[in-house]
Amino acid sequence: xxxxxxxxxxxxxxxxxxxxxxxxxxxxxxxxxxxxxxxxxxxxxxxxxxxxxxxxxxxxxxxxxxxxxxxxxxxxxxxxxxxxxxxxxxxxxxxxxxxxxxxxxxxxxxxxxxxxxxxxxxxxxxxxxxxxxxxxxxxxxxxxxxxxxxxxxxxxxxxxxxxxxxxxxxxxx
Length: 173
Hints:
Layout: H1 14-21, E1 26-27, E2 29-35, E3 38-44, E4 47-52, E5 55-62, H2 68-74, E6 76-81, H3 87-93, H4 99-104, E7 108-110, E8 116-118, E9 123-135, E10 138-150, E11 155-160, E12 163-168
Antiparallel strand pairs: 1-11, 2-3, 2-6, 4-5, 5-10, 6-9, 7-8, 9-10, 11-12
Enzyme class: oxidoreductase
EC number: 1.5.1.42
Family: Belongs to the non-flavoprotein flavin reductase family. RutF subfamily.
């Protein structure tokens, strides 16, 4: 039986889905870009690896977000995974604060693409957007990793049950 032959079944309600997804913990990331369309950044937990050959990850971005056209037009981004002390910066990049004030709150470098790399991030993935898939309200940005930078920080920041939590390498043991 192919996917096109499957029977249509009812879907869960939006709020029930959102509540269930709050129990799916994820690393907190600041996604940044800089290029001809301008400089922009936003907070995201919807980031995951796709494959290591070639090194590829995905980022989900709501098409109604004010930053969406900047990412679409620049074609490059950097995924900056926050360390445990990044909750305030995450909140800043997740709100309605001006881009100038967002970027002024931290120190930045660049790698291959020119997208801002957060100093002190656990890891930063400098990427080229190679594909975009539209699903519902969001675009899934498929991103090939051009370069990366890692820090020696031992604690990361996660989003779980609608709040920030820290984790460390020791927690995994």
